Amino acid sequence: MNKINLKLMPVFLMIMSLAIVVGCSQDDALISVEPPVAISFDKASASVEVEETTTYDVVVSTMNKSASDIVVDLVVKTPDSITSASLYSMTPSITIPAGASSGASTLSFSHSLLEFGDEKTLEVGIADSSRKGDVILNEERTSTTIKFVKKCTLNDVVVSITTDDYPEETLFRIYDVTTNPAGVLIYQSPTYDDFPEETVTQQLCLDAGSYAIVVYDLYGDGIVGGGFSVSVNGDEVVENTPVTGANAVEFFDIL
Hints:
Blueprint: H1 9-31, E1 37-41, E2 45-50, E3 55-62, E4 70-76, H2 80-83, E5 88-89, E6 93-96, E7 102-109, E8 120-126, E9 135-137, E10 143-150, E11 155-162, E12 170-176, E13 184-188, E14 199-206, E15 209-217, E16 227-232, E17 235-241, E18 247-254
Parallel strand pairs: 1-9, 2-10
Antiparallel strand pairs: 1-3, 3-7, 4-6, 4-8, 5-7, 8-10, 11-14, 11-16, 12-13, 12-15, 15-18, 16-17
């Protein structure tokens, strides 16, 4: 039978005690580790009708609050055709304050540079530089898409033009004839080079008054199989009208 060396018993007990203490300390350390902070945009998409003072808050939120401020860098994913025109402005980062669950960057719009009916799309993402320390991205919403369009606060006028095989010959003008029978030019469309044999629409925002629309065929032989119409606030005020020569003229009133 093996005999227990009683002289070594205190050393054995001391080693066992240290192992238990170390094991508990490691468990305690693991339990006290803070979970990562996952951030994402509050909305995947939004639509905004822009008036002169319209703003929109782009919100980034987190599921669990942080003990310190979180700075979220933003990146614009929209083509240069939108950004170069200075159609909007916003701060390039969002700060989520310590103890808060969200932060925002205020998006403002250049009302005077927008055209009625011409909807723009702005896509904003969370930059990779935002991955700092315990901050990670919630892959559910790492970008947000904001569609914005200039809101008409007067009368919504829609001109519909149906082109023929030579759309580069077609354009129209709107004249205000309320006080001047000769008319004051208030809008001229481009030619419709890229839209052969299609119906294209142009939205305008006009005050009450009397107006004339002149649709031109620059070659002078008319829009074969095509024509135009005008609606005001959803009601047709100029029914489908052909253009058989160099131009066609129709008048309409907005009450």
